Amino acid sequence: MTDLRDRAVVGVLCAALLTLAGCGDEASAPPPTSSSPSTAVDEEQAYAEVKKVDTKFRAHDQDEPLTADTTWASDAFRKQFNDDVAKREEQGLTRKGSTKVTGIHPSESKPEAPGGWDLSIFVCSTSTVRLYDKDGKDMTGDPSNPGQPLPPGPRDNVHLMSFTTPDDGKTWQLDKMHLIPNKYVEETPCAKN
User: Fold this and answer.
1) Greatest C-alpha distance within the chain
2) Strands, DSSP E only, in 10-144?
3) Residues 6 or more apart from 134 whose CB is under 8 A from it?
4) Which residues contact residue 154 at a Cβ distance below 8 angstroms, ignoring those fewer than 6 apart?
5) What is d(CA 15, CA 95) in angstroms, rounded to the nearest whole number?
6) What is the DSSP letter of 65?
7) What are the phi and psi torsion angles at 72 (to 5°)?
8) Which residues contact 162 (CB under 8 A, 6 or more apart)?
9) Per residue of the chain (193 residues), what is the pLDDT tens digit?
10) 99, 124, 141, 166 — which has fewest CB within 10 A?
11) Which helix (H) or strand (E) is 83 found in, with range?
12) HSE of 193 in the Cβ direction (CA atoms, 13 Å)?
């Protein structure tokens, strides 16, 4: 099965809007399945730590860049996030609305991944976030139908969030975030909520 993190299609407004942070990719492959943990205790502790990182991420103002001392984000994630914030500012777009997390589920644990342990989670959420231009016009694009406006009302989203550890599991950093396409949501644990 193709890994979601390796196949992504990004829409400018979609990336700026529908991800929880204003940055991320809509992937075009089915979600990955869980792999075997190194040890149950280690994996449980790691998932508990990445949930803490996710909480820090959500507490961050999504319209403010991440500073260089944001230890819970990798350099790659920080750059992508900051680029998305800058794009919205350049386009004169304002985000309005909120996101409520409705569930977090383990996805994959790869203790032997090249570069160090790689861990991912599915985050289920309901979002009312939309983008508006300077004149107050709704500019929200539909990630499932590029070039089309997003229908009004709240929507359910599923993101695959990937984390890495620079120190063998002592601390974790958010590294990548992908919006799961609607056609694959049924294959995620979020569909069972």
Assistant:
1) 55
2) 25-27, 94-96, 99-110, 118-127, 130-132
3) 92, 94
4) 126, 127, 128
5) 12
6) P
7) -85, 0
8) 5, 118, 119, 120, 174, 175, 176, 177
9) 333 333 332 232 333 334 333 334 444 444 444 444 444 448 888 999 999 999 999 999 999 999 999 999 999 999 999 999 999 999 999 999 999 999 999 999 988 888 788 999 999 999 999 999 999 999 999 888 888 999 999 999 999 999 999 888 889 999 999 999 988 999 999 987 5
10) 166
11) helix 75-90
12) 18
- Is 161 within 8 Å of 124 (Cβ atoms)? no
Nearest to 157 by CA among 120, 128, 117, 135: 128
Amino acid 130 reads: R
Strand partners for 162: 120, 176
DSSP 3-state helix, strand, coil percentages of the chain (rounded to 5)? 25, 30, 45
